[in-house]
Structure prediction request, 180 residues.
Amino acid sequence: MGSAFGRSASSFSPFNGEKVPEGRMRGSAGMSSFPEISLRQAKISDATAIAKLLRASLNAFEWMPVLHTPQQDLFFIRDILLPNQQVTVATAGGRIVGFIAVNGDWVEQLYLDPARTGQGIGSRLLAEATADMSVVKLNCFQANTGARLFYESHGFRAEAFSEGSANEEGLPDILYVLRR
Prediction:
C-alpha cells in the first residue's frame, strides 16, 4: 500500500466529525488552550518522534494488527519514508502531532496523535501537501470509518474496493481519488 511496510493513508487516526471553522484551528485564539499548529517539512531528526506518533496512531485501532516493532517503525520512517517521500509534519508546542507523506499523486501516509483528532490538523496537512496536485489518490482501510468520513468530507470518492490481498495487513481497503 504505497510503502515497503504496506502502510498507507488508510491508518489515519479516528476523525470524530467535529467541525472547526474554516481557516481556524482549535489552537487559534479564543478556541482552546491548545498551542498553535505549525506545518513544516520533516527533517531526519524528526524520525523518532514520527515513528512514535505512527505507533500511537496504529495502536488506537483494535482491528489493526501489530506487524512491526518500534525499531522497525523507526527504520521505516528514517530509512525509507523520509528519504523517498515529501513529508510534512504538524507541530504544537514544539511537539509533532501529525504528519503526511506524499509520493507522486499518492498520499502514502496521514497520521495524527490520537488525542489531537477532530481539531483540523489532518485537514491542514492534507490541504497543504496536496495543494498543487490535480489528482490525489490514497488507500483507506474499510474498517476505518472515521478516516472514510474525513476523506469523503474532503471530496475524495471511492473508486475501488479490495479484500486486502494487496496490503501487508491483509485488511479490506478502498482506493479513494480526488480529482480537481
